[in-house]
Amino acid sequence: MWTLADKTLKSRLFLGSARYPSPEILQQSIIASSTEVVTVSLRRESAQQNTGNRFWDYLRQTGVHILPNTAGCLSVREAILTAHMSRELFQTHWIKLEVIGNDDTLQPDPFGTVEAARILCAEGFEVFPYTTDDLVVAEKLVSVGCRIIMPWGSPIGTGQGLRNLEALKTLRQRLPGITLVVDAGIGRPSHATQALELGFDAVLVNTAVALAHDPVRMAQGFAAAVDAGRWGYEAGMMEASSRAQASSPTVGIPFWHQEDAH
Q1: Tens digits of residue pLDDT in 168-189
Q2: Half-sphere exposure of residue 188, counting CA atoms within 13 Å on the CB side?
Q3: In 3-state terms, what secondary structure has residue 54?
Q4: DSSP bridge pairs for 129
Q5: Tens digit of pLDDT for each residue in 196-248?
Q6: Rounded CA gap, 134 and 151, in Å?
Q7: What is the pTM of this model?
Q8: Which of the four, 24, 31, 151, 216, has the lowest number of CB atoms within 10 Å?
Q9: From 10, 96, 140, 169, active-site residue
Q10: Which DSSP string do the residues of 57-98 spell out, in sequence order?
Q11: At what angle do helices 52-62 and 23-33 cross, to 10 degrees?
């Protein structure tokens, strides 16, 4: 069990809800993953599609905590407006804050993100800001009231995994009391394991599950990967060494006499 904002959770895997083949597959994937937090875009939910109501009904049936996000917002004003609408629609003060600064890389705008976070924190939101792995930006977000930071492993949807391990390690070391969730770039279960082994509290996965040949099976794989990574971190993993070390004891093992070797 662990604490995320004002909730107590078992799973350390968050799922996104976009790009699944159908609402039914999304629901099955959520159940298979054992996740308790699912991100939802206001734009996705409010779109006038034939599956819109069915999508929302399937999410409700799973009993997960909804984490609305401001996906696609390009300005502080737009992100704040979307957050307010999300709070009314989803009945939650949680908001995953995204203020995109570059259309090609989908890299977040650090200045807009910090400013929007400052305003939303002051208004009583629990802000989950999507950011890069930059320590200074993360510290600024903490200074304006964020208790949770969501740095990317690599750009959204690339599946490149944890591209800058040293930066992520620095974030974990320098922000010991902050909940850190790797968001974006996770493409394989092994990437999720690696993030949890570094001491990150959770990972958010969307594309790697939604676009898998078998999303439900992939969701199960990520559930197991997150558990393995966390258990390894808590157990205390061995340090890598450049020198070979025998795993069996050598004390007391008899050596051949020199004459026996001839």
Answers
A1: 999 999 999 999 999 999 999 9
A2: 6
A3: helix
A4: 97
A5: 999 999 999 999 999 999 999 999 999 999 999 999 999 998 888 888 877 76
A6: 8
A7: 0.89
A8: 24
A9: 96
A10: HHHHHHTPEEEEE-TT--SHHHHHHHHHHHHHHHT-SEEEE-
A11: 20
